[in-house]
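thread: overnight batch results

M.L. [08:02]
morning all. the overnight job finished for the chain we discussed friday. pasting input first so we're all looking at the same thing
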Amino acid sequence: MRTRRLLDRVARRRAAVDSHDVAGLQGVIRRTGVIRLLLAGGAVALVLVAAASARDPQTSESALVPPDRIGVVVLDLSLSITDDDYVTIRRTLRRLVAEDASIGLAVFSDAPYELLPPGTSAKELTPILRLLVAPRLGPVRNPWTQTFRAGTRISTALELAKSMLERDKVAAGSILLVSDLETAPDDVPALARTIANLQRSDIRLRVVPLAPSSDALSLFEGLLEKDAVATFSSQTPAQGEPEVASTGVDTPVLFLVLGALVFLLLAAHERFSGRIALPRFRRDEGDPA
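M.L. [08:03]
and the structure it wrote out:
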């Protein structure tokens, strides 16, 4: 066994490049070793950070209800809602179901009404979808038509949503208003106060407008924070085509940047810390053995 180890050591020595000034290369060897460690460590760190970012896609800004919050959907069922508006309402509810949001539900016209308490799975909205289909002819009918006739007051609906979150002691809440944004003229001052109170609290307010008039949209844009108005594609699905909205997941820019940096570090490692490639010695036929 000892003889075999000795032969292996001799063979390795014969394969090495003989250099009589190796001592002069010690500084270069140490510097190359440090660079190699730094580049390898940086590459490993970037891979770990990229993996962590890939596990947590940035959806909080695109999702109708942020994943870290419990929302209350405030649904406008006044008589000013048209057939096309019901298409957007169904798409909105389907998107909430796809996002598996944690929500409550309130419907309103002149008076708001709580249907689902906060913390309910959005999948519970699925049975409601069949009730929000307008017939081809005649006025829109739903179970609340006889109750909700006219005199829309959006402020009271938002106040109900706020009270629902406070009643259930929801620490981080949000409100999603799905409406044509048409409210009674005498409700505008109360609406402004309600939105201001929501902005001072930890409750976020987002709006899905249902083909609002320019005046109504301008009013809400003046009261709401930036990017608080969510929009869908204007393209209406063909008859029989599933109404599937965007998943709301942003392009993973951070993941792509980190991945590019990993490749750059690997390339730098090969450029500055790679082994020196020496040509293989080939003995000519006339050379002595």
